[in-house]
Amino acid sequence: MTLFLRxxxxxxCRSVFQRKIxxxxxxxxxxxGSSHPFILxxxxxxxxxxxxxxxxxxxxxxxxxxxxxxxxxxxALGLAHAGCKICVVDFDVxxxxxxxxxxxxxxxxxxxxxxxxxxxxxxxxxxxDKRNENLVMLAASQTRDKDVLTVEGVEKVLAELTSLFDYxxxxxxxxxxxxxxxxxxxxxDAIIVTNPELSSCRDADKMIGFIASRSRRSEIEDSLPVSxxxxxxxxxPQRVQADESLSIADVEDLLGLPIVGVIPESKSVLTCTNxxxxxxxxxxxGDPAAGAYSDMVDRFLGEERELRFTTPEPVSFFKRFFS
Length: 323
Description:
By secondary structure, this protein is an alpha/beta fold. 33% of the residues lie in helices and 15% in strands. It is built from 13 helices and ten strands. The strands form two sheets. It has an eight-stranded mixed sheet, sandwiched between helices. Strands 1-10 form a two-stranded antiparallel ribbon. The longest helix is centred in the middle third of the chain and has 17 residues, at 198-214. 45% of the residues are buried. Residues 16-35 have low confidence and may be disordered.
């Protein structure tokens, strides 16, 4: 059976927004929750047909080791290839890895914490990707503790970034800790990364509930909720067929969210990480994981794409005979 997935959202890239950063002095308490003034414009300003700022997309997971940062790098570069202006931010303060996945580790001078504390500005801190001029990265600090993050500080950085970029992608640490909480709080969209195994899905379920109840959107009355979707990584159709792994339908039943992509198990992931190249760059070579990430980007932008690489490859007669 051929499966088509379509995310019920209308998204496209805009290089110029109608307005910039908002300093309105209003508080969230007038609309239902938080008490500090608006700096990042309200969700209603980005949900309409003519958004005044870019969207904040949080990529997170319940547990580590599910290829979350790998996915964030490919997703960001894929959106940049689609013509969107993208900033991807590493929120894993103290344990940054996103710079390695993008091949930028030797070019980091200033980071997220430096910008938040006023020790450097964005122009000094953003690192341009060598492959696509639409993509920049803001690295995490390796020398600071996650407790240095504050709601007010993160909001000021995101307010400036969303005035400049179509999408600000936050590579969140796994689990529910300070970096993850700050990344998820301001999200307009959240992509939950999970492996097709029970423990990973259980932890992902916790994240889904946390985002639904503890985000800024949940505090503001009449605001649309954070748009949450699932990204299944390390999917092996052979293991699913042998009942050694959860199927796509199993994951959907457990978590109850639409699936934005299914990334097959691939040796090229490790190779690309070591080379500082996002996996999606191999799409032209026909790599299955790269093709799956390209499809994920298209679905996120509202296009309909067939769900590929989810059925076992047919085994030839000679392979069966000599195995």
